[in-house]
């Protein structure tokens, strides 16, 4: 499973990129607003940090303007992926951009039928939102399961990019179900490495090693 980080904070991206475990970045208008920076400047900087796919979302809601914005964003760097909302205009733009050889990420997916439409439109990625479904007492992970079954039934190549991830458990379950990608906020991504028994075990090993008085180097 690929790991994308879900942020427009370039310092966080740089730190995680240094681990060698990052496969890409997703942003959305809310994350750009939170950064307080110019959208295109941030995307350009992120594309300079990672060679992985970087999702940049259009702001338009009509097909013609979406295509114009997509061309503008695509020109920023080769690894820009155009993020489009799950509407008929977004799907129409997805189909055209895919035919032109541009990678796409269809976002704000909350149902299996929406995911089916995005795959038919040739989306590179579909972004089902787990946390926001959980927030309204629905089962976000169940949606990932359904999409996995449907895509496998028909051999769709659209990658399932599990989004709106809030907990390490979401990441684990997505891996078990077989999501292709998880886009994870920096804090949750960093939490994946933590286990109290790892910390306790390491402390004990270091204490015992010190008692030996030895040095490896
Ligand atoms: C990523 O592409 C999505 O925009 C993001 O994961 C949404 O997460 P949120 O529901 O925590 O805002």
What attributes characterize this protein structure?
single chain; about 220 residues; alpha/beta; TIM Barrel; 8-stranded parallel barrel; 11 helices; globular; binds erythose-4-phosphate
Low-confidence stretches: none
Q: What is the strand content?
A: 15-25%
Q: What do we call the CATH topology?
A: TIM Barrel
How large, in whole angstroms, is the Cα Rg?
Answer: 19 Å
Q: Biggest sheet, strands in spatial order? A: 1-2-3-4-5-6-7-8
CATH architecture: Alpha-Beta Barrel
Pathway: Carbohydrate degradation; pentose phosphate pathway; D-glyceraldehyde 3-phosphate and beta-D-fructose 6-phosphate from D-ribose 5-phosphate and D-xylulose 5-phosphate (non-oxidative stage): step 2/3
Enzyme class: transferase
GO biological process, one term: pentose-phosphate shunt
Pfam family, one: TAL_FSA
Describe the structure concisely for a colleague.
It is found in: Cytoplasm. This protein is an alpha/beta fold and 217 residues long.
Characterization of the model:
With 217 residues, the protein is α/β, with parallel strands linked by helices. The protein has one domain (2-212): Alpha-Beta Barrel (TIM Barrel), CATH 3.20.20. The protein has helices at residues 10-17, 29-35, 39-49, 63-74, 88-99, 112-120, 130-135, 140-154, 168-177, 186-191, 196-212; strands at 2-6, 24-26, 53-57, 80-85, 104-109, 125-128, 159-162, 181-184. Strands 1-2-3-4-5-6-7-8 form an 8-stranded parallel barrel, surrounded by 6 helices. Strand 3 (53-57), helix 4 (63-74) and strand 4 (80-85) form a beta-alpha-beta unit. The longest helix has 17 residues, at 196-212. It is globular and about 70 Å long. Residues 6, 26, 28, 107, 127, 129, 131-132, 163-164, 183 line the site of erythose-4-phosphate.
């Amino acid at each position: 499973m690929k790991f994308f980080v879900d942020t427009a904070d370039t310092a966080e991206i740089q730190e995680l990129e240094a681990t060698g475990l990052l496969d890409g970045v997703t942003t959305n208008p809310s994350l750009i607003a939170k950064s307080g920076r110019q959208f295109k400047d941030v995307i350009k900087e992120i594309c300079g940090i990672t060679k992985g796919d970087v999702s940049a979302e259009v702001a338009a809601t009509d097909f013609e303007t979406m295509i114009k914005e997509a061309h503008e964003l695509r020109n920023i760097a080769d690894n820009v992926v155009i993020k489009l909302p799950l509407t008929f205009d977004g799907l129409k733009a997805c189909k055209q951009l895919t035919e032109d050889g541009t990678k796409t990420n269809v976002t704000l997916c909350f149902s299996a039928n929406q995911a089916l439409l995005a795959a038919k439109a040739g989306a590179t990625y579909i972004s089902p939102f787990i946390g926001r479904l959980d927030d309204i007492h629905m089962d976000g992970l169940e949606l990932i399961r359904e999409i996995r079954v449907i895509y496998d039934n028909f051999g769709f190549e659209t990658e399932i990019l599990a989004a709106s991830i809030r907990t390490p458990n979401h990441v684990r379950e997505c891996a078990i179900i077989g999501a292709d990608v998880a886009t994870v906020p920096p804090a949750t991504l960093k939490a994946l490495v933590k286990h109290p028994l790892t910390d306790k075990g390491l402390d004990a090993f270091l204490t015992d090693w010190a008692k030996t008085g030895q040095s490896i180097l």
